[in-house]
Amino acid sequence: MPLHEELEHYTLADYAKWQGDWELIHGRPQAMTPPGISHQLVRGNLFRQLHEQLEKCPCCFVLFETDWEIAEETVVRPDIMVVCGEIGERLTRRPELNAEVVSRETARRDERIKFRLYAEEGVPFYFLVYPEREVAKAYHLRGDEYRKIDDYSRGTWKESIEDCNLNMVFSRIWS
Fold first, then answer.
1. Which residue from 41, 43, 62, 42 is spatially nearest to 51, judged by alpha carbons?
2. Residue ranges in the chain whose pLDDT is less than 70
């Protein structure tokens, strides 16, 4: 019998009962690492800047610490998401942008597992943000895979999401 058939497999119903901070990716639990101070500061600055720019955009919202229920066996909690359209108390629709603040403990999951997962789910923009190096890697989904837009440290990323213009000034998120 193959090993994957012997491994425990969990669903959204199991996930709803767990204590603590977890993600569930393809039926496998992933413990979330408590964020450090630099992680929290960068995440807060990123949220604030996106929120300020989307305040006048009636259809888009910036979320953090929010579960995205992708499927019965997959629930993730990106650091920051931009979601457009109507939302309820549970997020089950695809975000327009996901950002992960990467630490040594989360690098493999953010750079590989979530990178593929978000591409498979059709998330148009993905940011990998590295506080220690003060660099953010921006990706845009082309077809079914991400293509790098650029690495940003002090530059500005300009894009339109749902007719709402964004001008992300990366030098503002490091302070």
1. 62
2. 1-6
